[in-house]
From TrEMBL, chains A, B:
Pathway named in the protein's UniProt entry: Cofactor biosynthesis; thiamine diphosphate biosynthesis
One Pfam match: ThiC_Rad_SAM
Known catalytic reactions: 5-amino-1-(5-phospho-beta-D-ribosyl)imidazole + S-adenosyl-L-methionine = 4-amino-2-methyl-5-(phosphooxymethyl)pyrimidine + CO + 5'-deoxyadenosine + formate + L-methionine + 3 H(+)
Gene it is expressed from: thiC
Protein's UniProt name: Phosphomethylpyrimidine synthase
Length: 615, 615
């Protein structure tokens, strides 16, 4: 289903709406705060003995049954009353300048989203960030919201004594059996978690990023100078969150980016991240040497006022580190990193991002824009993994993390890149140590360089592992990585692959509720409840389509086999028949069955080998 | 390109032939044994300063430039002279019986492959298996062949002192810098490696499976009762090995399987594995209770005479273990395991595979069919991982491994299944311990159950990890797993995904030559040699197609950007420009650059922070 919005050309025309097949959107009301409604996706199962499964749902109102979506109007203002109550005053916004849209000629100008919003900015000394509230012992509405959101199914679990047995290896994380708002506050106050939530992004449905919460994933969208338009980008956002992206980074470059960003922000229920240096570079005509503090500062304010929730800031790319990349196989592969390296060498000066970091903190704090400290020197190949340049930068990011905290800001840290499996854990351990347990946000890492076209997989392997080791958010990689701009299918493939990695990590960490969905799906599989199996999967459409390729008939949805093995060789059917026969044979046979189970355990204890070992 | 063979319907009509784009087949002659020619795939690079890259190539003569393929005639008899020289006599083959082809009516009978071959069988006491030769201190031609094959690029590497620095974590494996035939012999003699090579599969290009060699992958093919034909299956074999499958299991069931198998074996350069219990079950009309030793024994001989290189034997599914599966979420999910469990309970008797294991060894030894001891009780869900049933069976497989060795047989062990990440390593460690370091051959494992349609990825994560930990061969999983029979695209996706997992494991283990291809590709990427980048990738066709989706012109193949970032934001272009500028500025600037590198290291040593830590 799609919703159409009548607008001039270049502006979003339609977006994908309606529930994922087999699911419905539900909003849970919090008892103490009925004004706070937390969204979930609920999957009803055909076996009525099975409780419906609630899953985490970042997709916003778009997946309601009859969503009232009007892109011109923007999404409902979930946070407006909360922020208003904090007494943060509206301010006169910075006027839009021609360079904000890349000096686009009038006839090619994309009009901005017409939704009107007040622009707020905290005064100096006025408490505004989630970090500041947390340090002051104050629980915000955002903290209540994410506590409830993270608790997903855990009420049910706590009732089931057997299932609460923690089973996992969390490498020193401290995942509680139940998340309270106070726990969230503590984690934010310790800097171990962030709630990216610009006060000017009131449409946001808050979420938390931290090692002791569910592993999150980010999807990148953004036009490039070569292809794609505004309409594509808003639909990419809606499409990415439909399949599970928890945050979205808008990496647009080129013309109209200010106005395209207004459409994205007003219509995004998830945090939006950007890399402000990209737009700053556009403003100076694309020459890194022409960048300066003034244009960068102006860009930060421009984007902060629009409501961007986190900024990638490559302040760790310092002048003395640049020569460390000289002998690398792939040099500098971060766009922001290479821009700053060029600037440093052109002027032979220390990076203005590093030198002005204090002022950057002041700006970001005033809107509660979170830092995503960029890894501009991340390795771009297996050969360059864990080298001196990468780790020098990481140490500086640790230094900056602590400084940003002292200024009241929320911080996460970006990480690699390309890393072979045996070098992944040292990245995580070093990050936790250097950066005082601030959340890690990694790109992959890719575990080999030899599979362009399949880098969602080369990196999905590394992402699952580093997520297990403690990374809080995984930045997706699509099949088009290194080759071109991802299209709609690539975005979906990237998101699903990273949902797999994140969920595999949650399971391995021993997240208390993670296995409920696996178990529900496995029971459905064993019971041949095909529809339930499809609906419980990360991508019901693909699971159903694959099944129907060879067995399209409706009757096959109840069949006790699939085309993989056929009816005679279906192990699950044989096992089921076995169990059914035993059940049908009455109490005597059942007693025998129970007796056999006891005997089996005896047998195992006693040995009982027929074959002797080789002398 | 395809080659057509004129034959009646139901028989292979055509197969895919010709080199992979950008590659050519080369045969390396061994100095001491010019009669032994070892195949490689060579990728020439457009930068003539770069040596061509040789990669391991299991694809057989099909990928020669002008292959002389005639499916009726079968492949060249690589091993005929070697085996003839060992004095193993030809024997009168067992006559083909109606049940071998599932009592198919004459009008639906697929004719057998007309290629004539002598059928050999070793006499009692006559040395025949690679294990027996190895224990006797004899180096076979197969050992020489695989030593050379595994050495891939290592000659070049040994000349390059820098690259020989071992960099990896092998968890106790003993990977030498250079593989000699004597090393292969030792590994086979210790039972740590196998060379699956039935004496009746003379078309085989030998390969080795062991923890101290390159990680291998297996692809499953096979018709099921529901769909697919003989022609499909032979083309699936050729297609799977084209993309890198090292062995292929024919899991066919239903009618015509004897004759279809003859087409597969006569035209396969890779080891073929089967699960004989499938055909035995067909012969008794599909009722597990009707199975007996006689029909099973007859099937073993039938398939051993045809040349099958390894048999999955589920002899570890013992009667007392079956009740241990009663409380599982997904019961028994191995087809062979469920068949044997049903048999054991129906007769309330110990498995005839276990009780007759001695006789099974005698049959398999006589043809050098390797054991693949099946894990009939492997977990089919995250919930069932590492449970009592699974580990009880694994202990029995250890017992049987040692017995099979004492009978002169080669052995590998099959492993799970569905296992969350934190439970993978214990599987590997236990297998090595219980089974005396016999090679492990695992299916995935899948690290979560919630992504049907993407189980190549859920399992690729587990496969890369368990490969790193020590698994010698990874059985692929396709996107259709749990949903239906894989088609041509699914087979390719499964193979490429598992090549990624195997290669990521080789890199992490510190395989001395594994990184050469990654580095060559990364250099090509950094130099914008797009064609080289495509050709070095596991799937040049897909990499090229993805690139061309947005930048189709030939001129873009030399472009210093792609559509992902566009020309202004390409970090690699910026870094290259930076390096070029430095180079062009003459000796003074270069000195400055070198001086800066030295200073950077000083700077790092001294600290040099601007920002103080939070008090």
């Amino acid at each position: 289903m799609t919703v159409h919005t009548e607008k001039p050309s270049g502006v979003p025309q339609s977006v994908t709406v309606g529930p994922i097949q087999g699911s419905r959107k539900v909003y849970a009301q919090i008892k103490e705060r009925p004004d706070i409604r937390v969204p979930f996706r609920e999957i009803a199962l055909s076996d009525h003995a099975e409780a419906p499964i609630r899953v985490y749902d970042p997709s916003g109102p778009y997946t309601e049954s009859l969503p009232a979506i009007d892109l011109n109007h923007g999404l409902p203002l979930v946070r407006e009353a909360w922020i208003a109550a904090r007494g943060i005053a509206a301010t006169e916004p910075r006027p839009v300048k021609p360079e904000d849209n890349g000096y686009v000629p009038v006839d090619r100008l994309v009009s901005p989203c017409p939704a009107e919003r007040a622009v707020r900015r905290a005064a100096a000394g006025q408490r505004v960030t989630q970090y500041e509230f947390a340090r002051a012992g104050i629980i915000t509405e955002e903290m209540i919201y994410v506590a409830h959101r993270e608790n997903l199914c855990r009420e049910a679990m706590l009732e089931n004594a057997e299932a609460t047995i923690a089973d996992g290896e969390s490498f020193g994380a401290a995942i509680p059996p139940f998340i309270t708002p106070e726990f969230v506050r503590q984690e934010v106050a310790l800097g171990r978690a962030i709630i990216p939530a610009n006060i000017n992004h009131t449409e946001l449905e808050p979420m938390v990023i931290g090692r002791n919460f569910l592993v999150k994933i980010n999807a990148n969208i953004g036009n490039s100078a070569v292809v794609s338009t505004a309409a594509d980008e808003v639909e990419k956002l809606v499409w990415a969150i439909r399949w599970g992206a928890d945050t979205v980074m808008d990496l647009s470059t080129g013309r109209n980016i200010h106005n395209i960003r207004s459409w994205i922000l007003r219509n995004s229920p998830v945090p939006i991240g950007t890399v402000p240096i990209y737009q700053a570079l556009e403003k100076v005509g694309g020459d890194p040497a022409k960048l300066d503090w003034e244009v960068f500062k102006d860009t930060l304010i421009e984007q902060a006022e629009q409501g961007v929730d986190y900024f990638t800031i490559h302040a760790g790319v310092r002048l003395p580190y640049v020569p460390l990349t000289a002998k690398r196989v792939t040099g500098i592969v971060s766009r922001g990193g290479s821009i700053m390296a060029r600037w440093c060498l052109a002027h032979h000066k220390e990076s203005f991002l590093y030198e002005r970091f204090d002022e950057i903190c002041d700006i970001m704090r005033a809107y509660d824009v979170s830092f995503s400290l960029g890894d501009g020197l991340r390795p771009g190949s297996i050969a360059d993994a864990n080298d001196a340049a990468q780790f020098a930068e990481l140490e500086t990011l640790g230094e900056l993390t602590k400084y940003a905290w002292s200024k009241g800001c929320q911080v996460m840290i970006e990480g690699p890149g390309h890393v072979p499996m045996h070098k992944i854990k040292v990245n995580m351990d070093k990050q936790l140590r250097e950066c005082g347990e601030a959340p890690f946000y990694t790109l992959g890492p890719l575990t080999t360089d030899i599979a362009p076209g399949y880098d969602h997989i080369t990196s999905g392997i590394g992402a699952a592992m580093i997520g297990w080791f403690g990374t809080a958010m995984l930045c997706y990689v699509t099949p088009k990585e290194h080759l071109g701009l991802p299209n709609r299918d690539d975005v979906k493939t990237g998101v699903i692959t990273y949902k797999i990695a994140a969920h595999a990590a949650d399971l391995a960490k021993g997240h208390p509720a993670a296995r409920m969905r696996d178990d529900a799906l496995s029971r459905a599989r064993f019971d041949f409840r095909w529809e339930d199996q499809f609906n419980l999967s990360l991508d019901p459409d693909t699971a159903r389509a694959f099944h129907d390729e060879t067995l399209p008939k409706e009757a096959h949805k109840a069949a006790h086999f699939c085309s993989m093995c056929g009816p005679k060789f279906c192990s699950m059917k044989i096992t089921q028949d076995l169990r059914a026969e035993m059940a049908a044979m009455g109490p005597e046979a059942q007693e025998q069955w129970a007796g056999m189970q006891a005997k089996s355990r005896e047998f195992l204890a006693s040995g009982g080998k027929l074959y002797v070992e080789e002398p």
